[in-house]
């Protein structure tokens, strides 16, 4: 009977362990990294583009810093509030927008975006009910949520945070 219990326990525990280990920048690498500057951004390409018009206009001319073909702009939106805006440098379109309470991590060679990556360092082990670490993948249609967890990211944060 104890072998059966251990088998059931392993079936429940193993997928979560494997999923958290697979959410690393190296598992979302891009094939190509473009060496282009951000063109004039099409503010109308996103419903909330007008809200961040000034910040987006200031990004024109910067180089790609995320996901091989995107420029990731971080801007504040109040206390414990940051917005991450992804601009496609090939089209000038604002393709994704996500908000964070405690920063984020991203890399120029990976499609992964991690928001609120280091929860435990802010809350001394007592993470509030509302706080999660979010993992997103950028696509041509915006960000796709991969996972949300109470566990902090254990890797290195190259950009952001």
TrEMBL record:
<feature type="signal peptide">
    <location>
        <begin position="1"/>
        <end position="19"/>
    </location>
</feature>
<keyword id="KW-0732">Signal</keyword>
<protein>
    <submittedName>
        <fullName>Uncharacterized protein</fullName>
    </submittedName>
</protein>
């Amino acid at each position: 009977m104890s072998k059966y219990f251990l088998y059931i326990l392993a079936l429940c525990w193993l997928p979560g362990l494997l999923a958290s280990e697979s959410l690393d920048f190296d598992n979302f690498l891009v094939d190509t990294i473009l060496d282009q500057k951000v063109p004039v951004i099409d503010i109308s390409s996103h419903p909330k583009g007008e809200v961040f018009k000034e910040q987006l206009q200031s990004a024109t001319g910067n180089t790609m810093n995320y996901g091989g073909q995107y420029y990731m702009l971080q801007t504040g939106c109040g206390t414990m509030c940051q917005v991450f805006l992804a601009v496609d440098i090939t089209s000038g379109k604002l393709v994704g927008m996500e908000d964070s309470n405690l920063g984020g991590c991203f890399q120029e060679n990976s499609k992964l975006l991690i928001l609120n990556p280091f929860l435990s360092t802010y809350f001394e082990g007592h993470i509030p009910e509302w706080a999660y670490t979010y993992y997103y993948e950028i696509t041509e249609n915006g960000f796709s949520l991969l996972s949300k967890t109470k566990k902090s990211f254990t890797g290195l944060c190259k950009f952001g945070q």
